[in-house]
Amino acid sequence: xxxxxxxxxxxxxxxxxxxxxxxxxxxxxxxxxxxxxxxxxxxxxxxxxxxxxxxxxxxxxxxxxxxxxxxxxxxxxxxxxxxxxx
Length: 86
Fold this sequence. Notes:
The chain is mainly α. It contains 2 helices and no strands. Helix 1 runs antiparallel to helix 2. The two termini are 24 Å apart.
């Protein structure tokens, strides 16, 4: 049986990294290439949403990693107890 928390960890980690990278790229684009003063509000809002979304996904990935490790550890402990009593 596969551990779904491990699968969610990997997907949430990749999504979080992509969002955070996108936010940093948006900030770089805003600071180096955009010169119109009216558009910076939109780009700033987009960068904030991307970075916060990325951090949220990375935090969720950490939680799924911890759950995955606890499930694996519990299975090993149960397996050890099973062989100990036989």
